[in-house]
Specification:
Radius of gyration of chain B: 23 Å
Helix content of chain A: 25-40%
Structural class of chain B: mainly beta
Strand content of chain A: 25-35%
Distance between the termini of chain B: 42 Å
Strand content of chain B: 35-45%
Number of helices of chain A: 15
Radius of gyration of chain A: 21 Å
Distance between the termini of chain A: 52 Å
Strand order of the largest sheet of chain A: 13-12-9-10-11-14-19-17
Order of helices and strands of chain B: EHEEHEEEEEEEE
Number of strands of chain A: 20
Oligomer: heterodimer
Chain lengths: ~450, ~160
Protein backbone atom coordinates (compact mmCIF):
# COMPACT_ATOMS: atom_id res chain seq x y z
CA UNK A 1 0.00 0.00 0.00
CA UNK A 2 1.22 3.52 -0.65
CA UNK A 3 2.81 5.62 2.07
CA UNK A 4 2.15 8.96 0.50
CA UNK A 5 -0.14 10.09 -2.31
CA UNK A 6 0.21 13.37 -4.14
CA UNK A 7 -3.14 14.78 -5.24
CA UNK A 8 -2.68 16.39 -8.65
CA UNK A 9 -5.92 18.34 -8.67
CA UNK A 10 -7.89 20.97 -6.82
CA UNK A 11 -11.30 21.90 -5.50
CA UNK A 12 -13.89 19.41 -4.36
CA UNK A 13 -12.26 16.37 -5.95
CA UNK A 14 -8.93 17.03 -4.27
CA UNK A 15 -10.78 17.06 -0.98
CA UNK A 16 -12.57 13.85 -1.96
CA UNK A 17 -9.29 12.10 -2.64
CA UNK A 18 -7.76 13.50 0.54
CA UNK A 19 -10.62 11.94 2.51
CA UNK A 20 -10.09 8.49 1.04
CA UNK A 21 -6.35 8.68 1.71
CA UNK A 22 -6.97 9.68 5.31
CA UNK A 23 -9.30 6.74 5.80
CA UNK A 24 -6.62 4.41 4.46
CA UNK A 25 -3.97 5.97 6.71
CA UNK A 26 -2.03 7.27 3.72
CA UNK A 27 -0.19 10.60 4.01
CA UNK A 28 -1.27 13.27 1.55
CA UNK A 29 0.49 15.96 -0.45
CA UNK A 30 -1.61 18.75 -1.92
CA UNK A 31 -0.11 20.61 -4.86
CA UNK A 32 -1.61 23.98 -5.64
CA UNK A 33 -1.24 27.17 -7.59
CA UNK A 34 -0.62 30.43 -5.75
CA UNK A 35 -4.36 31.17 -6.17
CA UNK A 36 -5.30 28.04 -4.22
CA UNK A 37 -3.03 28.51 -1.20
CA UNK A 38 -6.10 28.79 1.07
CA UNK A 39 -8.09 25.96 -0.46
CA UNK A 40 -9.65 23.55 2.02
CA UNK A 41 -7.85 20.48 0.71
CA UNK A 42 -4.51 22.30 1.00
CA UNK A 43 -5.29 23.11 4.62
CA UNK A 44 -6.25 19.55 5.44
CA UNK A 45 -3.44 17.79 3.59
CA UNK A 46 -0.42 16.59 5.53
CA UNK A 47 1.92 18.50 3.25
CA UNK A 48 1.45 21.06 0.53
CA UNK A 49 3.63 22.28 -2.30
CA UNK A 50 2.96 25.41 -4.30
CA UNK A 51 3.72 24.46 -7.88
CA UNK A 52 3.10 27.56 -9.91
CA UNK A 53 1.14 30.61 -10.96
CA UNK A 54 -2.68 30.44 -11.23
CA UNK A 55 -3.13 29.51 -14.91
CA UNK A 56 -3.63 25.76 -15.21
CA UNK A 57 -0.79 25.38 -17.70
CA UNK A 58 1.60 26.84 -15.10
CA UNK A 59 0.34 24.71 -12.26
CA UNK A 60 -2.20 21.87 -12.49
CA UNK A 61 -1.10 20.96 -16.01
CA UNK A 62 2.58 21.52 -15.28
CA UNK A 63 4.00 18.02 -15.40
CA UNK A 64 7.63 18.88 -14.48
CA UNK A 65 6.55 20.82 -11.41
CA UNK A 66 4.23 18.05 -10.29
CA UNK A 67 6.94 15.42 -10.72
CA UNK A 68 9.39 17.66 -8.84
CA UNK A 69 6.83 17.94 -6.05
CA UNK A 70 6.71 14.12 -5.89
CA UNK A 71 10.47 14.08 -5.64
CA UNK A 72 10.83 16.51 -2.80
CA UNK A 73 8.00 15.00 -0.77
CA UNK A 74 8.77 11.38 -1.51
CA UNK A 75 5.26 10.67 -2.76
CA UNK A 76 5.01 7.16 -4.17
CA UNK A 77 1.74 7.62 -6.03
CA UNK A 78 -0.25 10.36 -7.73
CA UNK A 79 -4.03 10.58 -7.91
CA UNK A 80 -4.97 12.78 -10.87
CA UNK A 81 -8.66 13.29 -10.02
CA UNK A 82 -10.72 14.27 -13.07
CA UNK A 83 -9.90 16.82 -15.78
CA UNK A 84 -6.37 18.33 -15.83
CA UNK A 85 -3.94 15.43 -16.27
CA UNK A 86 -6.35 12.61 -15.41
CA UNK A 87 -6.50 11.32 -18.98
CA UNK A 88 -3.02 12.41 -20.08
CA UNK A 89 -1.22 9.26 -21.12
CA UNK A 90 2.11 11.10 -21.31
CA UNK A 91 1.77 12.09 -17.65
CA UNK A 92 1.02 8.48 -16.72
CA UNK A 93 4.10 7.34 -18.66
CA UNK A 94 6.37 9.95 -17.09
CA UNK A 95 5.26 8.94 -13.62
CA UNK A 96 5.94 5.29 -14.48
CA UNK A 97 9.43 6.24 -15.64
CA UNK A 98 10.01 7.88 -12.27
CA UNK A 99 8.65 4.78 -10.48
CA UNK A 100 5.70 6.71 -9.14
CA UNK A 101 2.33 4.98 -9.44
CA UNK A 102 -0.30 6.73 -11.53
CA UNK A 103 -3.61 5.89 -9.85
CA UNK A 104 -5.56 5.00 -12.93
CA UNK A 105 -5.50 2.63 -15.88
CA UNK A 106 -2.45 1.78 -17.95
CA UNK A 107 -1.17 4.54 -20.26
CA UNK A 108 -2.15 2.26 -23.18
CA UNK A 109 -5.80 2.25 -22.13
CA UNK A 110 -5.76 5.98 -21.43
CA UNK A 111 -4.49 6.53 -24.98
CA UNK A 112 -6.85 3.99 -26.48
CA UNK A 113 -9.98 5.57 -25.04
CA UNK A 114 -8.66 9.11 -25.43
CA UNK A 115 -8.85 8.85 -29.16
CA UNK A 116 -12.58 8.66 -29.77
CA UNK A 117 -12.31 6.87 -33.10
CA UNK A 118 -10.03 4.19 -31.66
CA UNK A 119 -12.34 3.95 -28.68
CA UNK A 120 -15.28 3.17 -30.90
CA UNK A 121 -13.32 0.56 -32.83
CA UNK A 122 -12.27 -1.03 -29.55
CA UNK A 123 -15.82 -0.89 -28.21
CA UNK A 124 -17.08 -2.59 -31.34
CA UNK A 125 -14.46 -5.32 -31.05
CA UNK A 126 -15.46 -5.83 -27.42
CA UNK A 127 -19.11 -6.31 -28.34
CA UNK A 128 -20.50 -2.96 -27.26
CA UNK A 129 -23.31 -1.53 -29.41
CA UNK A 130 -22.33 1.62 -31.34
CA UNK A 131 -24.01 4.73 -32.71
CA UNK A 132 -24.16 4.31 -36.49
CA UNK A 133 -21.50 6.48 -38.06
CA UNK A 134 -18.45 6.83 -40.23
CA UNK A 135 -16.50 4.35 -38.11
CA UNK A 136 -13.24 6.09 -38.88
CA UNK A 137 -12.00 9.57 -39.67
CA UNK A 138 -13.64 11.62 -42.41
CA UNK A 139 -11.15 12.79 -44.97
CA UNK A 140 -13.25 14.42 -47.64
CA UNK A 141 -16.62 15.98 -48.18
CA UNK A 142 -17.88 13.38 -50.70
CA UNK A 143 -17.17 10.57 -48.27
CA UNK A 144 -18.91 12.51 -45.52
CA UNK A 145 -21.96 13.17 -47.67
CA UNK A 146 -22.22 9.54 -48.67
CA UNK A 147 -22.01 8.30 -45.11
CA UNK A 148 -24.44 10.94 -43.89
CA UNK A 149 -27.03 9.96 -46.51
CA UNK A 150 -26.54 6.35 -45.54
CA UNK A 151 -27.08 6.77 -41.81
CA UNK A 152 -29.63 9.55 -42.29
CA UNK A 153 -29.72 13.18 -41.18
CA UNK A 154 -29.34 14.80 -38.77
CA UNK A 155 -25.68 13.89 -38.24
CA UNK A 156 -23.07 14.97 -35.73
CA UNK A 157 -19.49 15.88 -36.64
CA UNK A 158 -17.23 14.96 -33.70
CA UNK A 159 -13.56 15.63 -32.94
CA UNK A 160 -11.53 12.44 -32.56
CA UNK A 161 -9.46 14.09 -29.82
CA UNK A 162 -12.42 15.72 -28.17
CA UNK A 163 -14.70 14.25 -25.58
CA UNK A 164 -16.56 15.46 -22.54
CA UNK A 165 -19.08 17.13 -24.82
CA UNK A 166 -16.60 19.33 -26.62
CA UNK A 167 -15.79 19.57 -30.31
CA UNK A 168 -19.20 18.59 -31.77
CA UNK A 169 -21.26 20.21 -34.55
CA UNK A 170 -24.68 19.19 -35.85
CA UNK A 171 -25.69 19.13 -39.50
CA UNK A 172 -29.48 18.86 -39.70
CA UNK A 173 -29.66 18.69 -43.47
CA UNK A 174 -27.23 18.05 -46.31
CA UNK A 175 -26.33 21.68 -46.98
CA UNK A 176 -25.23 22.12 -43.38
CA UNK A 177 -22.70 19.33 -43.60
CA UNK A 178 -19.86 21.21 -45.29
CA UNK A 179 -19.90 24.19 -42.87
CA UNK A 180 -20.28 21.83 -39.91
CA UNK A 181 -17.21 19.87 -41.00
CA UNK A 182 -15.18 23.03 -41.58
CA UNK A 183 -16.06 24.63 -38.24
CA UNK A 184 -15.59 21.41 -36.34
CA UNK A 185 -12.12 20.96 -37.81
CA UNK A 186 -11.03 24.50 -36.99
CA UNK A 187 -12.29 24.28 -33.42
CA UNK A 188 -10.83 20.82 -32.93
CA UNK A 189 -7.43 22.00 -34.10
CA UNK A 190 -7.59 24.97 -31.72
CA UNK A 191 -8.84 23.05 -28.70
CA UNK A 192 -7.17 19.67 -29.03
CA UNK A 193 -4.36 20.24 -31.51
CA UNK A 194 -5.88 17.66 -33.85
CA UNK A 195 -8.47 18.36 -36.54
CA UNK A 196 -9.43 14.71 -37.15
CA UNK A 197 -13.21 14.37 -37.18
CA UNK A 198 -15.71 11.56 -37.59
CA UNK A 199 -19.46 11.35 -38.16
CA UNK A 200 -22.22 9.87 -36.04
CA UNK A 201 -25.94 9.67 -36.35
CA UNK A 202 -27.51 12.43 -34.27
CA UNK A 203 -30.13 10.79 -32.09
CA UNK A 204 -33.28 12.86 -31.63
CA UNK A 205 -34.29 12.15 -28.03
CA UNK A 206 -31.69 10.01 -26.35
CA UNK A 207 -30.91 9.74 -22.68
CA UNK A 208 -27.30 9.76 -21.53
CA UNK A 209 -26.80 6.57 -19.51
CA UNK A 210 -23.36 5.54 -18.33
CA UNK A 211 -22.11 2.42 -16.58
CA UNK A 212 -19.56 2.49 -13.77
CA UNK A 213 -16.92 -0.23 -13.92
CA UNK A 214 -14.11 -1.41 -11.70
CA UNK A 215 -11.31 -3.65 -12.97
CA UNK A 216 -8.16 -5.04 -11.40
CA UNK A 217 -6.02 -5.18 -14.53
CA UNK A 218 -5.84 -8.97 -14.25
CA UNK A 219 -8.95 -9.72 -16.27
CA UNK A 220 -11.44 -9.29 -13.45
CA UNK A 221 -14.02 -6.54 -13.73
CA UNK A 222 -17.42 -5.74 -12.29
CA UNK A 223 -20.07 -3.11 -12.94
CA UNK A 224 -21.65 -0.92 -10.28
CA UNK A 225 -24.78 -0.02 -12.14
CA UNK A 226 -25.63 2.94 -14.27
CA UNK A 227 -26.13 6.66 -13.90
CA UNK A 228 -28.52 8.83 -15.88
CA UNK A 229 -26.84 12.12 -16.79
CA UNK A 230 -29.30 13.39 -19.37
CA UNK A 231 -29.83 16.81 -17.78
CA UNK A 232 -27.10 18.81 -19.49
CA UNK A 233 -26.49 22.32 -20.60
CA UNK A 234 -24.03 22.77 -23.46
CA UNK A 235 -23.00 19.17 -22.98
CA UNK A 236 -22.10 19.78 -19.35
CA UNK A 237 -23.91 17.56 -16.86
CA UNK A 238 -25.78 19.39 -14.11
CA UNK A 239 -27.93 16.71 -12.48
CA UNK A 240 -27.19 13.03 -12.31
CA UNK A 241 -29.12 10.14 -10.83
CA UNK A 242 -28.64 6.49 -10.04
CA UNK A 243 -30.33 4.29 -10.99
CA UNK A 244 -31.72 5.66 -14.25
CA UNK A 245 -35.49 6.24 -14.10
CA UNK A 246 -35.64 4.81 -17.62
CA UNK A 247 -34.25 1.34 -17.01
CA UNK A 248 -35.75 -1.71 -15.37
CA UNK A 249 -33.78 -4.37 -13.49
CA UNK A 250 -33.29 -6.60 -16.53
CA UNK A 251 -32.02 -3.83 -18.79
CA UNK A 252 -29.68 -2.67 -16.04
CA UNK A 253 -28.13 -6.06 -15.49
CA UNK A 254 -27.90 -6.73 -19.21
CA UNK A 255 -26.03 -3.56 -20.12
CA UNK A 256 -23.98 -3.81 -16.92
CA UNK A 257 -22.86 -7.33 -17.73
CA UNK A 258 -22.14 -6.44 -21.37
CA UNK A 259 -19.85 -3.65 -20.18
CA UNK A 260 -18.22 -5.71 -17.40
CA UNK A 261 -17.48 -8.51 -19.85
CA UNK A 262 -15.87 -6.00 -22.24
CA UNK A 263 -13.70 -4.67 -19.42
CA UNK A 264 -12.63 -8.18 -18.50
CA UNK A 265 -11.52 -8.81 -22.05
CA UNK A 266 -9.70 -5.49 -22.11
CA UNK A 267 -8.05 -6.35 -18.78
CA UNK A 268 -8.93 -2.86 -17.64
CA UNK A 269 -7.42 -1.57 -14.41
CA UNK A 270 -9.08 0.90 -12.07
CA UNK A 271 -12.32 2.81 -12.29
CA UNK A 272 -13.88 3.73 -15.58
CA UNK A 273 -17.19 4.78 -17.04
CA UNK A 274 -18.63 3.60 -20.32
CA UNK A 275 -21.05 6.17 -21.71
CA UNK A 276 -24.03 5.40 -23.91
CA UNK A 277 -26.87 7.19 -25.56
CA UNK A 278 -30.09 5.29 -24.93
CA UNK A 279 -33.05 5.63 -27.23
CA UNK A 280 -35.94 3.37 -28.09
CA UNK A 281 -34.72 0.71 -25.73
CA UNK A 282 -31.31 0.54 -27.44
CA UNK A 283 -27.88 1.50 -26.14
CA UNK A 284 -25.31 3.23 -28.32
CA UNK A 285 -21.70 3.54 -27.14
CA UNK A 286 -20.31 7.08 -27.35
CA UNK A 287 -17.15 7.07 -25.27
CA UNK A 288 -15.30 5.66 -22.29
CA UNK A 289 -13.78 7.81 -19.56
CA UNK A 290 -10.73 6.19 -18.02
CA UNK A 291 -10.91 8.06 -14.76
CA UNK A 292 -13.05 8.91 -11.77
CA UNK A 293 -16.06 11.01 -12.78
CA UNK A 294 -17.62 13.97 -11.04
CA UNK A 295 -20.84 12.03 -10.51
CA UNK A 296 -19.23 8.90 -9.08
CA UNK A 297 -20.95 9.94 -5.85
CA UNK A 298 -24.44 8.74 -6.77
CA UNK A 299 -23.07 5.28 -7.47
CA UNK A 300 -21.36 5.34 -4.10
CA UNK A 301 -24.64 6.21 -2.38
CA UNK A 302 -26.63 3.37 -3.88
CA UNK A 303 -23.90 0.72 -3.58
CA UNK A 304 -22.22 1.81 -0.35
CA UNK A 305 -18.82 1.44 -2.02
CA UNK A 306 -16.09 4.09 -1.77
CA UNK A 307 -14.82 4.27 -5.34
CA UNK A 308 -11.72 6.31 -4.52
CA UNK A 309 -10.64 3.79 -1.89
CA UNK A 310 -11.18 1.01 -4.44
CA UNK A 311 -9.10 2.96 -6.98
CA UNK A 312 -6.25 3.31 -4.53
CA UNK A 313 -6.38 -0.35 -3.51
CA UNK A 314 -6.32 -1.53 -7.11
CA UNK A 315 -3.47 0.83 -7.98
CA UNK A 316 -1.51 -0.60 -5.06
CA UNK A 317 -1.86 -4.04 -6.63
CA UNK A 318 -4.73 -5.48 -4.64
CA UNK A 319 -7.26 -7.71 -6.41
CA UNK A 320 -10.90 -6.68 -6.57
CA UNK A 321 -12.34 -6.95 -3.09
CA UNK A 322 -15.81 -7.51 -4.52
CA UNK A 323 -17.50 -9.92 -6.87
CA UNK A 324 -20.47 -8.98 -9.02
CA UNK A 325 -22.86 -10.83 -6.73
CA UNK A 326 -21.61 -8.70 -3.80
CA UNK A 327 -22.90 -5.54 -5.46
CA UNK A 328 -26.36 -4.56 -4.24
CA UNK A 329 -28.25 -1.43 -5.13
CA UNK A 330 -30.14 0.31 -2.38
CA UNK A 331 -32.54 3.14 -3.03
CA UNK A 332 -32.02 6.13 -5.25
CA UNK A 333 -29.52 8.98 -5.36
CA UNK A 334 -29.42 12.35 -7.10
CA UNK A 335 -26.53 14.76 -7.44
CA UNK A 336 -26.79 18.46 -8.26
CA UNK A 337 -23.61 20.22 -9.38
CA UNK A 338 -23.61 23.60 -7.67
CA UNK A 339 -21.74 26.15 -9.79
CA UNK A 340 -20.74 29.69 -8.91
CA UNK A 341 -22.87 31.09 -11.73
CA UNK A 342 -25.97 33.16 -12.16
CA UNK A 343 -28.83 30.63 -12.12
CA UNK A 344 -30.46 32.09 -15.23
CA UNK A 345 -27.68 33.55 -17.36
CA UNK A 346 -24.98 31.14 -16.14
CA UNK A 347 -22.54 34.01 -16.04
CA UNK A 348 -19.64 32.97 -13.79
CA UNK A 349 -19.67 34.55 -10.36
CA UNK A 350 -16.24 34.43 -8.78
CA UNK A 351 -15.89 36.27 -5.48
CA UNK A 352 -15.88 35.69 -1.75
CA UNK A 353 -18.39 33.49 0.02
CA UNK A 354 -19.65 35.39 3.06
CA UNK A 355 -21.93 32.73 4.53
CA UNK A 356 -21.78 29.02 3.86
CA UNK A 357 -24.25 26.64 5.48
CA UNK A 358 -24.51 23.26 3.75
CA UNK A 359 -27.54 21.07 4.41
CA UNK A 360 -27.36 17.95 6.54
CA UNK A 361 -29.52 15.21 7.90
CA UNK A 362 -30.17 11.65 6.84
CA UNK A 363 -29.17 10.86 3.28
CA UNK A 364 -27.58 14.24 2.54
CA UNK A 365 -23.98 14.53 1.38
CA UNK A 366 -22.15 17.68 0.33
CA UNK A 367 -18.79 17.36 -1.45
CA UNK A 368 -17.37 20.85 -1.43
CA UNK A 369 -14.19 22.67 -0.53
CA UNK A 370 -16.05 25.91 0.01
CA UNK A 371 -16.31 27.69 3.35
CA UNK A 372 -17.28 31.11 4.72
CA UNK A 373 -14.50 33.51 3.80
CA UNK A 374 -13.30 31.45 0.83
CA UNK A 375 -12.63 33.42 -2.31
CA UNK A 376 -13.38 31.55 -5.51
CA UNK A 377 -10.52 32.06 -7.93
CA UNK A 378 -11.53 33.07 -11.47
CA UNK A 379 -9.01 30.79 -13.18
CA UNK A 380 -10.76 27.44 -12.95
CA UNK A 381 -14.15 25.85 -13.48
CA UNK A 382 -17.09 27.19 -11.53
CA UNK A 383 -18.00 24.03 -9.61
CA UNK A 384 -18.07 24.92 -5.93
CA UNK A 385 -19.68 21.78 -4.66
CA UNK A 386 -21.92 18.81 -5.22
CA UNK A 387 -25.12 18.19 -3.31
CA UNK A 388 -25.94 14.49 -3.25
CA UNK A 389 -29.05 13.03 -1.68
CA UNK A 390 -29.96 9.42 -1.12
CA UNK A 391 -33.29 7.88 -0.12
CA UNK A 392 -35.14 4.59 -0.37
CA UNK A 393 -37.16 5.57 -3.45
CA UNK A 394 -36.88 8.19 -6.17
CA UNK A 395 -39.88 10.09 -4.78
CA UNK A 396 -38.38 10.24 -1.30
CA UNK A 397 -35.13 11.34 -2.92
CA UNK A 398 -36.86 14.23 -4.67
CA UNK A 399 -38.49 15.33 -1.39
CA UNK A 400 -35.17 15.11 0.39
CA UNK A 401 -33.45 17.09 -2.38
CA UNK A 402 -36.07 19.80 -2.12
CA UNK A 403 -35.59 19.96 1.64
CA UNK A 404 -31.77 20.03 1.32
CA UNK A 405 -31.76 22.75 -1.34
CA UNK A 406 -34.00 24.81 0.93
CA UNK A 407 -31.41 24.66 3.71
CA UNK A 408 -28.36 25.32 1.58
CA UNK A 409 -27.01 28.84 2.16
CA UNK A 410 -24.27 30.30 0.00
CA UNK A 411 -24.05 34.09 0.28
CA UNK A 412 -21.68 36.49 -1.38
CA UNK A 413 -21.76 34.85 -4.80
CA UNK A 414 -24.38 33.64 -7.22
CA UNK A 415 -24.99 29.93 -7.39
CA UNK A 416 -27.19 27.62 -9.42
CA UNK A 417 -29.10 26.43 -6.34
CA UNK A 418 -32.26 28.28 -7.49
CA UNK A 419 -32.10 26.44 -10.82
CA UNK A 420 -32.35 23.06 -9.09
CA UNK A 421 -35.20 24.28 -6.90
CA UNK A 422 -37.10 25.28 -10.04
CA UNK A 423 -36.40 21.95 -11.72
CA UNK A 424 -38.02 20.12 -8.84
CA UNK A 425 -41.26 21.88 -9.64
CA UNK A 426 -41.32 20.44 -13.16
CA UNK A 427 -43.59 17.44 -13.80
CA UNK A 428 -41.13 15.92 -16.29
CA UNK A 429 -38.41 15.92 -13.65
CA UNK A 430 -40.75 14.44 -11.08
CA UNK A 431 -41.66 11.72 -13.56
CA UNK A 432 -38.10 11.16 -14.71
CA UNK A 433 -39.20 11.85 -18.28
CA UNK A 434 -36.37 13.75 -19.86
CA UNK A 435 -33.69 13.36 -22.49
CA UNK A 436 -30.43 15.14 -23.25
CA UNK A 437 -32.21 18.07 -24.89
CA UNK A 438 -34.75 18.60 -22.14
CA UNK A 439 -32.81 21.04 -19.99
CA UNK A 440 -31.80 23.38 -22.79
CA UNK A 441 -35.37 23.37 -24.12
CA UNK A 442 -36.64 24.13 -20.64
CA UNK A 443 -34.15 26.99 -20.21
CA UNK A 444 -35.07 28.39 -23.62
CA UNK A 445 -38.75 28.33 -22.67
CA UNK A 446 -38.28 30.14 -19.33
CA UNK B 1 -1.28 18.43 11.00
CA UNK B 2 -1.49 21.14 13.61
CA UNK B 3 0.67 19.36 16.08
CA UNK B 4 2.68 20.67 18.98
CA UNK B 5 5.55 18.56 20.05
CA UNK B 6 5.13 19.04 23.81
CA UNK B 7 4.58 15.80 25.69
CA UNK B 8 1.76 15.93 28.17
CA UNK B 9 1.60 13.75 31.17
CA UNK B 10 -1.08 12.49 33.45
CA UNK B 11 -0.38 10.68 36.66
CA UNK B 12 -2.28 8.67 39.18
CA UNK B 13 -1.94 9.23 42.96
CA UNK B 14 1.48 8.85 44.55
CA UNK B 15 4.97 9.95 43.53
CA UNK B 16 6.24 9.15 40.12
CA UNK B 17 9.52 8.27 38.53
CA UNK B 18 10.53 11.35 36.57
CA UNK B 19 13.27 9.45 34.76
CA UNK B 20 10.65 7.05 33.44
CA UNK B 21 8.55 9.95 32.21
CA UNK B 22 11.53 11.50 30.50
CA UNK B 23 12.39 8.18 28.89
CA UNK B 24 8.86 7.78 27.62
CA UNK B 25 8.85 11.30 26.25
CA UNK B 26 12.06 10.62 24.33
CA UNK B 27 10.62 7.37 23.07
CA UNK B 28 7.63 9.30 21.75
CA UNK B 29 9.82 11.67 19.78
CA UNK B 30 12.07 8.94 18.44
CA UNK B 31 9.32 6.66 17.29
CA UNK B 32 6.84 9.28 16.10
CA UNK B 33 4.07 7.78 18.25
CA UNK B 34 1.49 10.14 19.65
CA UNK B 35 0.74 8.35 22.91
CA UNK B 36 2.30 5.76 25.23
CA UNK B 37 0.54 4.39 28.29
CA UNK B 38 2.16 1.91 30.66
CA UNK B 39 1.34 0.39 33.99
CA UNK B 40 4.33 0.11 36.26
CA UNK B 41 4.37 -0.99 39.91
CA UNK B 42 0.72 -0.25 40.40
CA UNK B 43 0.92 3.14 38.73
CA UNK B 44 -0.34 4.00 35.31
CA UNK B 45 1.54 6.57 33.31
CA UNK B 46 0.35 8.06 30.04
CA UNK B 47 2.54 10.29 27.97
CA UNK B 48 0.86 11.93 25.01
CA UNK B 49 1.90 14.36 22.33
CA UNK B 50 -0.54 17.25 22.41
CA UNK B 51 -2.60 17.34 19.21
CA UNK B 52 -4.48 20.57 18.65
CA UNK B 53 -7.93 20.12 17.19
CA UNK B 54 -9.34 23.20 15.49
CA UNK B 55 -12.18 24.65 17.51
CA UNK B 56 -15.04 25.30 15.16
CA UNK B 57 -14.75 24.15 11.62
CA UNK B 58 -12.18 26.60 10.34
CA UNK B 59 -9.97 28.15 12.98
CA UNK B 60 -7.03 30.08 11.66
CA UNK B 61 -4.67 27.56 13.31
CA UNK B 62 -5.66 24.82 10.91
CA UNK B 63 -5.12 27.16 8.04
CA UNK B 64 -1.41 27.76 8.24
CA UNK B 65 -0.50 24.31 9.48
CA UNK B 66 0.25 21.80 6.74
CA UNK B 67 3.54 23.13 5.40
CA UNK B 68 6.61 21.02 5.90
CA UNK B 69 8.07 22.85 2.96
CA UNK B 70 8.10 26.58 2.54
CA UNK B 71 7.31 27.56 6.08
CA UNK B 72 9.45 30.60 5.79
CA UNK B 73 6.93 33.13 4.61
CA UNK B 74 4.05 32.78 2.19
CA UNK B 75 3.19 34.60 -0.98
CA UNK B 76 0.78 36.92 0.83
CA UNK B 77 3.26 38.34 3.30
CA UNK B 78 4.86 41.59 2.16
CA UNK B 79 8.36 40.97 0.83
CA UNK B 80 11.39 43.19 0.69
CA UNK B 81 11.45 44.44 -2.93
CA UNK B 82 14.73 42.65 -3.53
CA UNK B 83 13.35 39.24 -2.57
CA UNK B 84 14.15 36.45 -5.00
CA UNK B 85 11.20 34.05 -5.23
CA UNK B 86 11.62 30.50 -6.41
CA UNK B 87 10.44 29.98 -9.99
CA UNK B 88 10.08 26.24 -9.50
CA UNK B 89 9.71 23.24 -7.23
CA UNK B 90 12.87 21.33 -6.32
CA UNK B 91 15.79 21.06 -3.97
CA UNK B 92 17.86 24.19 -3.46
CA UNK B 93 21.63 24.06 -3.14
CA UNK B 94 23.89 26.93 -2.16
CA UNK B 95 27.02 25.51 -3.83
CA UNK B 96 27.73 24.20 -7.34
CA UNK B 97 28.62 20.82 -5.81
CA UNK B 98 29.00 19.28 -2.35
CA UNK B 99 32.06 20.66 -0.55
CA UNK B 100 32.48 23.63 -2.90
CA UNK B 101 32.08 27.14 -1.52
CA UNK B 102 28.58 28.61 -1.81
CA UNK B 103 27.69 30.79 -4.78
CA UNK B 104 27.01 33.74 -2.49
CA UNK B 105 27.21 34.70 1.18
CA UNK B 106 25.53 37.49 3.09
CA UNK B 107 27.29 40.66 1.98
CA UNK B 108 28.32 39.29 -1.43
CA UNK B 109 28.04 41.77 -4.26
CA UNK B 110 26.39 40.26 -7.30
CA UNK B 111 25.84 41.25 -10.93
CA UNK B 112 22.49 40.93 -12.65
CA UNK B 113 22.16 37.37 -13.96
CA UNK B 114 24.81 35.99 -11.63
CA UNK B 115 23.98 32.56 -10.19
CA UNK B 116 22.73 32.83 -6.60
CA UNK B 117 21.88 29.18 -6.10
CA UNK B 118 20.86 25.99 -7.91
CA UNK B 119 17.49 24.27 -7.77
CA UNK B 120 17.57 20.65 -8.72
CA UNK B 121 14.56 18.79 -10.02
CA UNK B 122 14.48 15.45 -11.77
CA UNK B 123 18.26 15.28 -12.01
CA UNK B 124 18.58 18.63 -13.78
CA UNK B 125 20.34 21.56 -12.15
CA UNK B 126 18.72 24.91 -12.73
CA UNK B 127 20.78 28.03 -12.06
CA UNK B 128 18.76 30.73 -10.35
CA UNK B 129 20.08 34.15 -11.39
CA UNK B 130 20.08 37.47 -9.53
CA UNK B 131 17.29 39.60 -11.03
CA UNK B 132 19.37 42.75 -10.58
CA UNK B 133 22.84 43.81 -9.43
CA UNK B 134 23.30 44.48 -5.72
CA UNK B 135 24.26 43.10 -2.34
CA UNK B 136 22.99 39.86 -0.79
CA UNK B 137 21.18 40.88 2.40
CA UNK B 138 19.90 37.45 3.33
CA UNK B 139 19.86 33.84 2.23
CA UNK B 140 16.56 32.30 3.33
CA UNK B 141 17.10 28.65 2.56
CA UNK B 142 19.40 25.96 3.88
CA UNK B 143 21.61 23.90 1.59
CA UNK B 144 19.59 20.92 0.34
CA UNK B 145 16.24 22.34 1.37
CA UNK B 146 13.13 21.45 -0.66
CA UNK B 147 11.48 24.57 -2.02
CA UNK B 148 8.16 25.33 -3.67
CA UNK B 149 7.07 27.84 -6.32
CA UNK B 150 7.20 31.46 -5.10
CA UNK B 151 9.13 30.53 -1.97
CA UNK B 152 11.47 33.36 -0.89
CA UNK B 153 15.04 32.23 -1.51
CA UNK B 154 17.20 35.28 -0.86
CA UNK B 155 17.09 39.05 -0.56
CA UNK B 156 19.29 41.12 -2.85
CA UNK B 157 19.33 44.82 -2.24
CA UNK B 158 19.55 46.75 -5.48
CA UNK B 159 22.57 48.93 -5.95
Amino acid sequence: MFDKILIANRGEIALRIERACKELGIATVAVHSTADADAMHVRLADESVCIGAPPAKDSYLNIPQIVAACEITGADAVHPGYGFLAENARFAEILEEHEITFIGPSPEHVKLMGNKIQAKETAKALGLPLVPGSGGAITDLQEAQAIASDIGYPVLVKAASGGGGRGMKVAHVENELEPALATARIEAKASFGDDTVYLEKYLAHPRHIEVQVLGDGEGNAIHLGERDCSLQRRHQKLWEEAPSPALNVNERMRIGETVAKAMRELRYRGVGTVEFLYEGGEFYFIEMNTRLQVEHTVTEMITGIDLVIEQIRIAAGAPLSLKQEDIRFHGHAIECRINAEDPRTFRPSPGTITHFHPPGGLGVRVDSGAYAGYTIPPYYDSLIGKLIVHARTRNECLMRLKRALGEFVVDGIDTTIPLFKSLLAEPDIADGQYDIHWLESHLARS
Amino acid sequence: MAEERTPQMTKKAGSFDSDLIRELAELLSETGLTEIEIEHEGQRVRVARNVTVGVGALSADVARAPREIGDRGTADEPHHPGTLLSPMVGTAYRSPEPGAPPFVEIGSRVAAGQTILIIEAMKTMNHIPAPHAGTVLAVLIDDGQPVEFAEPLAVIEKG
